[in-house]
Fold these 3 entries.
Entry 1:
Amino acid sequence: MANSTGFVGTQKVWQEWYEVSTGLHARLIAGALIGLTTDDELVQIKMTTAGNIHVEMQPSTESVGYVTLGSSNNHAGQVGGNSAFPSAAIAVTTSGAYSSGDVMGASVTFSGCFRSTDIMSGILQSVVVTDLSTAAQSAIDLWLFQTVTTGTTYTNDSALTLADADIAKLVAKVSISSGDYYQFANNAAAVVSNLGLPIRATTGTGLTGVAICRSTGPQYASTGDLNVTLGILQD
């Protein structure tokens, strides 16, 4: 294989390799443009300042067009992954105590769980529950669904009756026990981590969730006392 290099002053601007037996050329120009040729065809791949990848095909001297790959899901040169931390407030009741099995608040939407409607999947890695009422610290089952559960009515402080059509939308369940909470002076928080649960949506980039009480008699002082945050490793 032969090769040659071109300079402007002391700056290397291109380098070319040529395989005699196959007629294949490979050219690297300014570290940004790759040219591959077989006889009279040239394929150029380059990154624009906007983050798009352009692919141009040229037979010798005449351009035959190019393909632009959208930047939304192209991660050329990216090191590391994407994480999302969607949060939802659980509108708990203040008029009485919950019983085990009761719906807490209503169904909620965790928005922005996934990168786009083209890639609606990821790994649920953690759940964080914050409780502004130090007395409650309720055990909770958090149920997550891949789309809106249109067939089920969620009634605060009442037992859940899940419609048959909606149970098929279930994608994950995470249990938070009373022992998971750490009590601070004026509030409490629970963290459940290392879950490693694959999750996905079927429409949009969010998930539907519902919290079910698993303690007896927790009471809240304010409807905004309870909040849930998901930790998601996005595909």
Note: The chain has a mean pLDDT of 81.
Entry 2:
Amino acid sequence: MMTQRDAARTAAVTALSYSRILGANDRIGLGVIGTGGRGTYVKSLFQKNADVEVRALPIDDAWMRDSGPIIVRAPDTTRHAVHFGFNAWGEKYAPYDQDAAIGARVARALGLPVYDAPFVLEGGSIAVDGAGILVTTERCLLNENRNPGMSKAEIEDALRHWLGVDRIVWLRDGIAEDAETDGHVDNVVAFVGPARVLLQGCADPDNPNHANAADNAARILAAARAAGDLVVHVRHEFPTADAPFFTPGSAGAQSHPGTKDLEACFIELLPVTRANE
């Protein structure tokens, strides 16, 4: 049975591996639940690594991708943090009061000015290219468990105001297996540069994601034709039942046969300023 200390060590080793790959130009921030012994223990693991900054912050869940602040850059190049509302993916988990506050806490720890946006938005529910394009899904942002009472037009206006985007592409859904986040777009879309997008495809007609992937592709391609500059760079296929994938503690990719309902991997990626070979 894995103890809390074992879990802390696993997370710390993972962060340490990332820091070595990313290089000194990209610092790793590691949040720790609570301010007692676990924070002290994790800090001790990174005493000799200046690229990792450990802060003891109270959180309810570890998914900072969704509950953390979104950093925007003003026309004068200064950075600002937008702290959106968070309700545990439509109040699926409780409590979530610490996660609802973590965005502002992280921003203040980074020394950034904080602006509170008056509506719910998770980081994984949007994909942006940094040059004005935002992609999201109807199942998530228009869900009554996020912002009841806000129309599609009102949500679009809010996204433009708080994130500085000018073009919004609506997909129908993320992936069929995603019951927790209600169709987050980060499962199916990621930008690799301005107007260059990776898109999750699904060629298998027996896969429950087939029709939705085709609809998403049609919408992305329609947006590309309308604007003339959006390029669908790559289309990934869903992993098959015999596809190899990594499991914790394994030395490499392991093949797991018989997993017909294997959920798709994230299409997400992490842009970095420099990476060590």
Note: The chain has three domains: 1-56, 64-120, 123-277.
Entry 3:
Amino acid sequence: MTRVAFIRSLPIRVTAVTRRPERPVARCETHGSLAKSAPVQRAAVTTDNATVPAAIAKVRQIDTTSAAPAAPITRRLANRLDIAGPVLLIVSVAARLAWTYLAPNGANFVDLHVYVGGAAAIDHPGTLYSYVYADQTPDFPLPFTYPPFAAVVFYPLHLLPFGVVAFLWQIATIAALYGAVRISQRLMGVSADSGHRVAMAWTAISI
């Protein structure tokens, strides 16, 4: 008969469980000193031949809620931006347009004048790089210094009133800024279905 079969054949039963209040003393084999151990519960396990004391481990429940870390500051900031994003964008765009059209010299669109005016020079061959804009910069005339392809791209804009072009230019700039923020989010791992409100908030801050 194997050892495992012999052990399984023993009729084992627990007769009593006792708790010893005192600390058991254990002797160190190497130095002969005494060492105290923590109190344990012991049970008397009875077989046919002898009663053997057996230690019972005491399991305590661990509280993991107190160890949970606080939410990161960046997460709380993102939640606030997610809530306030659309409102911030509306306020920021309104403030930008108000400053452009109501404040003296709020926005003169000098560069846009150069783009559109230089594109209009296509109607007069050979005059593209002789064009200069000096209406608002008389002491420093601004020439068209861009490739001919840029003049072709801007050519349709000179057919519209400049006020309309300036307004659409601002809206397109804001939309492009929002698109740049969204691309940055995607590069950071933000899914395409989320992050829109946060992107609005960062666009408003950038404006």
Note: Helices lie at 3-9, 73-102, 110-120, 148-154, 162-187, 196-206.
